[in-house]
Amino acid sequence: MASNYNRKSASSGSRRPASRAQAGNTRRPAAPRQARTYERSGATRLTSVRVGDLPQVDRAARAQKTYHRYLARLGVVAGVIVALAIAATVAYNSSLFTIESVSVKGVEHLTASDMQQLAGVDAGTTLLRVDAAGIKENLMKDAWVADVKVRRVFPSTLEIDVTERTITAVVEVPSENAQSSTQWAIASDGMWLMPIPAKDSDAGRRTSSKVYEDAENVLHITDVPYGTKPAVGSYCSDANVNNALSIVAGMTTELADRVTSVKATETESTTLTIKDGPDIVFGTADNIREKERVCLQILKEHPEGVTYINVRTPDRPTWRSL
């Protein structure tokens, strides 16, 4: 009996809770991963960092370095800009690049001295301070000038490149009393260019010889009705003159080269005078190519000669042969 009791006691003792000492030796759950500080005897204090935190630390350091480099570069750029601004201001207000010559190109009907006067470049003006837009605006006020380009040619030349209008016809405009007429040069776009003075007059001697050369070789518009009032630099508003210009500008056959003058009394009765041929009553500036074709066909079919052709209605032309 005693032995059984002892065995029970031993067995019961084996199931008793562990003592506090024994409990302290049992494994506890691992503490969260975090920075821990260890202190050892005679050793320097060390700090541990989680492995996952290392990339973040490196990125922050790199970002800070990049930011510092950016600030440094920004400071350099700002310094350069300030230095350039100061240099530009000094150069602008100095006499550097003073204009010593004005070169004018592309003028035939206007003289170079006329263009320089129109440009209005003051003495002592520099290439940096010159008002190129203002010069162009001044020159464009002249009826002959269709376009202008102003260039600065360093160190001391201002170049003015002009595109001139050309004379497309000379219009004989009657005076107010209808006792005389004045020849007016007109451009292809209908702008009145100038009254052409007599060659032997004071105004004629100041006029470019190119004006007289062109006037002799272009179309003449005659019989303009009383009341037409041209003005230099304005566009022609006379319907008869504009109709005559449109006819000549729209002709494309060999007949165009033979036209010497146009009578512009009325739009419907506009008449062409051709070299070595009859007068042609052309009428309005419509169906120009068809009217040309009919005229050439009539001239071809009557080699003996024709004194008169009327193609105001091209599908019903009339003519008189010799």
Residue stretches low in confidence (pLDDT < 50, at least 5 long) are 1-26, 30-43
Proportion in β-strands: 15-25%
Helix/strand structural class: alpha/beta
Mean pLDDT: 82
Number of strands: 14
Largest sheet: 9 strands, mixed
- Compressed to H and E, one letter per element, the order equals HHEEHEHHEEEEEHHEHHEEEHEE
Compute the CA-based radius of gyration. Answer: 50 Å
Morphology call: elongated
Helical fraction: 25-40%
| Neighbour order of strands in the largest sheet | 8-7-6-9-10-11-12-13-14
The CA-CA distance between the termini, in Å, is 173 Å
Number of helices: 10
Report what the structure shows.
The structure is a single chain. By secondary structure, the protein is of the alpha/beta class. Helices cover 37% and strands 22% of the residues. A hairpin with a 4-residue loop joins strand 7 and strand 8. The radius of gyration is 50 Å and the shape is elongated. The N terminus is likely disordered.
